[in-house]
Amino acid sequence: MKKKKIVYVALVGDDLNDGHKNILKVASKYGQIIIGLMTDKAALEYTELPHFSYKEREKFLKKNSLIKFIVPQDTLDFTKNLRKYKPNVVVHGDDWKFGHQKKIRNKVINELKKWSGKLVEVRYTANIPKSADNLKFLSHSTTAELRKSKLKRLLKSKKIVKILEAHNPIGGLLIDNLSYSDEKKFDQIDGVWCSSLTDSTSRGKPDNGSLDLTTRSNWLSEMFEVSSKPVIFDADNGGPKEHLKFLVNKLEKIGVSAVVIEDKIGVKINSLFKDQSHTKQDTINNFSKKIKIMCNSRVSNDFLIISRIESLILGKGVKDALKRANSYSKAGADMILIHSNKKTPTEIFKFAKLFKKSKYFKPLVSVPSTYPSVTDTNLIKHGFKIVIYANHLLRTSYLSMKKTLISILKNGQALKAQKDMISIKEIIQMIR
To answer: Which DSSP symbol is given to 414?
Structure first.
């Protein structure tokens, strides 16, 4: 009896649109199909985090009668699986002939040559809407729960998670849809920072806690309508202990992935102000109790509690910050945000080096607003898992609006300002 040929197809499997179905149809003509199902880690090397977990995507694909076997593919590189299964044929869309996947394609061709296998490329079909099957699949899932779990999945799959502030839904839309790619790399923003500073400023109000939770959660609802990225919520000091349960319940229920609370008390003074003489810090004991209350109030461990330490901002030094980090971590905090307003990361790196030796060490978060030259690579080296670019879209948009306003007033027309604008057509296409 003639042995059936093995055909290897790599998929993320979040959706089987017409393009994917065409690839499977072509593959089925050559033999029995093995799906190399991308793990979250593999998918993130060239696209966004899959909407569904690996197990959910596997379950979805098993319903397809053309698919014989499903195996995990843990990297974008096919080499490990090709050597293990030695397929006679690999079927792939022809969109990987260019960009950073080109080198992966070349590796596949070279591996297949070793056992006289061949590559079949199917013409790529762009701008395909979500399939009816996938939409049905989506409708049976709890969107808030899926969104909430994304940050934790990202932390497991990436060396560092990149979070960018968005103060309106358009910012969220950009974060959701834009990425950077060349022949060497692919990169993207992983999530949204819901900042008390930018939320207030974008509404023309001071950053002093004047916006209530209801107002800010309404903003989140608008953001969730256009962006699928996980959200980290800036809750300042969280308010009185009696309010923390309601804060956690509210954020968790609508699908927020994490909340950051800082150990300052009293009237809020933004940490980036030089004069912090009137700023007071909570006691270690009291703030640790707040952390415990929040941890005990959450329904799922997918919702992360991040403790922000202000000791360096207030000039109390690394020793005090370490004492607090150990206590907050012991109380249940999932991550520690060590804040600094210095122009270099030297201070936070000193803290990180010492904290890594602690039995209470938790992954670190950096907010490099005042030390913007620090690189992802350097943060990873020092134990940081999240970097938050906390106010950059607001600052950019303000400058652009100011420039346009002055140009119109100066020239008595809008023509000269248009060189710095995108077209109306592009705006319409973005929000279709």
So the answer is: S
Contact by Cβ (8 Å): 199, 236: no
Instruction: Check whether residue 67 and residue 108 sit in a common domain.
Output: yes
Q: Indicate if 91 and 214 belong to the same structural domain.
A: no
What is the mean pLDDT of the segment spanning 207-215?
A: 84
pLDDT band at 128 (very low <50, low <70, confident <90, very high): low
258 close to 151: Cβ distance less than 8 angstroms: yes
Quick check: 53 and 5 in contact, CB under 8 A? no
pLDDT over threshold 70, residue 276? no
- Give residue 141's pLDDT: 43
- Distance between CA 252 and CA 419 in Å, rounded? 43
Query: Do 386 and 401 reside in the same domain of the chain?
Result: no
Which domain covers residue 171, as residue numbers?
A: 145-390
**Which two three-digit tokens encode residue 372?**
């913007």
Q: How many domains does the chain have?
A: 3
Contact 13, 43 (CB under 8 A): no
Q: Confirm whether pTM is higher than 0.85.
A: yes
The answer to whether 292 touches 298, Cβ cutoff 8 Å, is no
Query: 85 and 187 share a domain?
Result: no
In terms of domains, do 281 and 384 share one?
Answer: yes
Do 317 and 241 share a domain, yes or no?
yes
Say if residue 137's pLDDT is above 50: no
Burial of 189 (0-12, 13-18, 19+ CB in 10 A): buried
Q: How confident is residue 139, by pLDDT bands cut at 50, 70 and 90? A: very low
185 neighbors 100 (Cβ within 8 angstroms): yes
DSSP 332-355: T-SEEEE---SSSSHHHHHHHHHH
pLDDT of the residue at 146: 87
pLDDT given for residue 1 in this prediction: 39
Q: What is the percentage of the chain residues whose pLDDT exceeds 90?
A: 75
User: Does 195 map to a domain?
Assistant: yes
**Of 135, 160, 180, which residue constitutes the final position of a domain?**
135
Kindly give the residue spans of alpha helices, DSSP state H, lying in 16-142: 18-28, 40-43, 54-61, 79-85, 102-113, 132-139
CA distances from 253 to 227, 246, 250, 260 (A): 17, 10, 5, 16
140 in a structural domain: no
Among the three residues 135, 163, 185, which one is the final residue of a domain in this structure? 135
Residue 184 sits in the same domain as residue 300: yes
127 and 165 fall within a common domain: no
Q: What is the mean pLDDT of residues 191-209?
A: 90
The pLDDT score that the predictor gives to residue 26 is 96
- Catalytic (active site) residue 207: yes
Choosing from 15, 207, 282, 302, the catalytic residue is 207
